[in-house]
Design a protein that fits this description.
42% helix, 2 domains, Rossmann fold
Length: 378
């Protein structure tokens, strides 16, 4: 069998957020079980070509040339360029070679749904349905149009949690539940891959992209309430997803002094921060999967998060939670409690070991490969 895997959504791969990391983890799992070979054709931007070839030498990597700096283009330029890539270049590549399956590891707006080749999409969430006020009305209407095609015309859909499956069936009651398979995202962490980052200890850590639904203002407000009661700094790590959110300016206005905004960090430095944090906090309001609380738990760091959307499901109800999610007082109280009453090391080890087994890339990759074979046979 010959599979086309569309990785163009990963841009140049320098700042991988959760979806990009999911795709790499899945490919690493397929490689580990001996299934990633020259029959896997990976479509990537030419700027990402060398990295992908070095990571997956057994696969065939197909570079796509993109003129200009895609990441620094204005949003309209990026939108139309991504539309051209997904709806023109990807179909062109499919016609050039004979494929048995087209796989999109991400529900990009313009994902091409083939009428001739079975198409599989991993649909990570329906964010636009749950937070419509964060997008323009024109874009919402476009998403509604495109997602009807994704939901109803795609040969099969994989979702990372039961929450996302139920979300699809709620918003698209005509969707076939038998065409939707729940497979958790793989999580792979190289515990020996660490590099020190200059941070003052002790500290509380949050790893999240800066977007409004990540609820980081609530975390800052909670920390403001307790900053004089603890010796800890607050460290926020993650790429800027919404340039309109200025956490530094907010902290300055509220006189939050013990705050470090690191921006995006490579894996080695992020691993160091996970390892050395006294507490990891994620106040997110919406996750289709939610990788960072699990990653922190793998490092046997105490985790505090919300009970929103998929988070309890994905963390297997094994970490610490606060509610309501938007209440800074509830969050502040739980932070103080956990700093004063640290979970025993044996419990942190049990949680970490359980979650390692749950999200082992080889196990997840085997489930995906079964879907590939089933669709091709079908």
């Amino acid at each position: 069998m010959k599979l086309a895997v569309n990785l163009t959504f990963m841009m140049d791969g320098k700042q991988l957020e959760g979806i990009g990391q999911f795709a790499l983890n899945l490919l690493q799992g397929l490689q580990a079980i001996g299934k990633l070979d020259k029959n896997f054709h990976l479509f990537v931007f030419d700027s990402f070509y060398e990295k992908v070839v070095s990571l997956f030498p057994e696969a065939k990597v197909i570079p796509i040339a993109v003129r200009g700096d895609f990441n620094n283009s204005n949003k309209y330029h990026r939108f139309f360029k991504s539309m051209y890539i997904d709806l023109c270049l990807v179909p062109h590549l499919l016609k050039k070679d004979r494929y048995d399956l087209l796989f999109h590891p991400f529900n990009a707006t313009n994902d091409y749904i083939s009428n001739k080749v079975p198409t599989l999409i991993t649909l990570h969430d329906l964010f636009f349905k749950n937070f419509p006020n964060e997008l323009s009305k024109k874009y919402i209407n476009y998403l509604k149009y495109r997602y009807k095609g994704i939901i109803y015309k795609t040969s099969h859909i994989v979702v990372p949690s039961q929450f996302v499956k139920q979300d699809i069936l709620k918003y698209y009651p005509g969707a076939d539940p038998g065409k939707i398979t729940v497979i958790n995202n793989p999580i792979w962490v190289d515990f020996e891959k660490t590099r020190a980052f200059p941070v003052k200890k002790p500290y509380i850590l949050c790893v999240n992209s800066i977007r409004s639904h990540k609820n980081l203002i609530t975390l800052l407000r909670a920390f403001q309430l307790i900053q004089d009661q603890v010796e800890h700094h607050l460290v926020l790590t993650g790429a800027i997803g919404d340039p309109h959110i200025d956490l530094g300016q907010y902290a300055a206005q509220q006189q939050i002094e013990k705050l470090l905004l690191t921006g995006y960090l490579p894996d080695e430095q992020r691993n160091y921060l996970y390892q050395n944090a006294d507490l990891f906090v994620s106040p997110s309001l919406h996750e289709g999967f939610g990788m960072t609380p699990v990653e922190a738990a793998l490092f046997e760091t105490p985790v505090l998060t919300t009970r929103e959307t998929s988070i309890p499901e994905v963390t297997r109800n094994m970490v610490n939670y606060y509610e309501p999610a938007a209440d800074p007082h509830a969050l502040a109280a739980q932070i103080l409690h956990l700093l004063e009453h640290q979970p025993p090391k044996s419990e942190l080890q049990r949680v970490g070991q359980t979650l390692v087994q749950e999200y082992e890339p080889e196990k997840i990759a085997t489930l995906y490969f079964d879907i590939f074979e089933r669709l091709i046979r079908g």
